[in-house]
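### Sample
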Amino acid sequence: MYKEVLEGMSEGVLVLDVVGKIVFANQAIAEIFSLANDGFIGKRLLEVIRLVELSDLVEAVRRSGQPVEREMKLVFPAEKNLLGLANLAGDNIAVIIRDITAMKQLESLRSDFVANVSHELKTPLTAIKGYVDTLVAGAIDDPDNNRRFLEKIAKNADSLAALIDDILALSRLEVHRGIAPFEKVFLADEIEKALETLAPAIKEKRIEIVNLSGGAVVGEPSQLYRAILNLLDNAIKYSHPGGKVEIVIAKTEKELCLSVTDHGMGIPAEHHARIFERFYRVDKARSREMGGTGLGLAIVKHIMEIHGGRVELKSAAGQGAKFTLVFVSRHL
C-alpha cells in the first residue's frame, strides 16, 4: 500500500540500504534524473545517479544520524535545481527530492524585476532631486533658469507617474486581475480614440496616418485600446518627422490581424527575441529621452495572451517596424 502512495508522489523518493544500494525509487526519481524505469534497484547510488551532491547528502545523514536538507544542481542530462531532504528510516536512509527549477526561475525573475524597477524609479527621482536642490540653493530667484528647471521637474514627474501606471497595469495583467467581461469591440472605434489621444504628437512630428481599419473582435475594450495606443505611440515616437504610419486590418476565416507599420529606424534582428520583455530597450538612452517606460510592448504581449492571441514583429534596421495583433477565430 505504501508503495502505491510513494509512486503517486510528485516528489522523488529514494531509499538506500546500509551499504548504499538502492532498494526503492519511485517514478518521480526516474523522471527527475531521466532514468530508465528499471535496472537500478540493487545498484549503488553513484552508479545510477552521478550527482556527488546527492551522495554527500546521504553520507551527511549516515554520519550525523540527523535529517539533512540541501539544495543541489543537476547539470546533465538537463539542468535542474533540486532540493533534497534525507533522514534515517530504520537501518535505511530515505531521501525526498523536489525539483525546484521553476521556483528558482521565478525567484530570479522577481529579483531582476525589483532591480529593474529600482533602477527605472531612481532615474527620474535623481533628476527631480537634482533640480529641486539647485532651486533651493538659489536658482529659484534666477528668472532665466527657474522656469526651465520646473519644466524638467514636471517632465520627470510625468515619467515617474507613467512608469508606476505601467507597472501596476502589467502586474494586474499577469494575474488576470481587473479584467472586465469580454464584449464585442469595434476596433475602428478604439483606433480613433487612440489617435485622438496621440493627436498632439502626430501634429508635432507631422506624421501622416493611413487608417484602413474595420472589423470587430470579442474582448475587453479598455485593454484593446491600451494595446493599440502603445503600438501607435511607439510608431509615432520612432518615425522620422514627416513620416507615415499605416494601420491596416486584414481578416481571414481563422484570424483577424491588426497591423501598425512605421517607416522609421527599425529594430535590428538580434533584438527581436527580447523586444517584448519587461524593461528591454533597443536604445536605452533614446527610449528614456522619448519618455518610454520599457514596459509598453510587454503590456501589449500580455493583453494579447489574455485574448487568446499574439503579437508579431517584422522589422529590420533602418527599414521601419510592423507590429501585428493577431486574434484567433474564437475571439472574432
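The chain has three domains: 2-99, 102-178, 180-332. This sample (histidine kinase) is used throughout the tutorial notebook.
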